[in-house]
Sequence to fold (255 residues):
Amino acid sequence: METGLNIPSVKNLVSAEEWQVRVDLAACYRLVAMYGWSDLVFTHISARIPGPEHHFLINPYGLMFDEINASSLVKVDQQCNKLLESPFPVNPAGFVIHSAVHEVRDDAQCVMHTHTRAGVAVSAQKCGILPISQQSTFVLGSLAYHDYEGVAFREDEKPRLQADLGHANFLMLRNHGLLVAGKSIADAFLSMYTFEMTCQIQLGAQAGGELIHVNPAIVAGVAEAMRVQTGGMGGAFAWPALIRKLDRIDESYKL
Fold:
């Protein structure tokens, strides 16, 4: 796909490890657009670059997700200082949320946040996620909630968001949307897919008759179920197939 942005390649300016993260993160943005989870230019996916510096990549604010490629991603530090020249800004609200998670979760290489219709709708329900589907059991095994405090551009919200997230991998931002923390970009994508499907199924089920809740003992054993389901590989099990799907459509995310 030709975007017309003519973004110069940074491949020769970064390490091989950083370039691979850039390619995977750009692929993740394209997949989010493909699955219809984007909200124009207003949500974010960030990924930590390997190394002790705690630098990470985030989207250039103002680009549609299907325009993003490896070279357009913006490299920043925890104070939102650009570390590589870029003509694009970073969204302050997006930076606050993502830097809050990266600051306290060394196990989270990738943080995804969405404003999908289903995700926001369920985030506005007092009951939150209900144990009514197989998908919901995977979410409920590691789910936390954070109350809405307005558009997240204030630094003073970060400690409360961090405390609410704790060690959970799924965070429902009340009246706002969904957030996942993954140990890899592939894990984060699979988690968001499961979270989003959980919300879509819940809204569909609520439109019908009386709901049947899953036995709590099944939810308690969900970690082992996920390990078996993915052969112990987590998101890496599905990621190669997703990349093949994306490559059949458009490989320009690799530029």
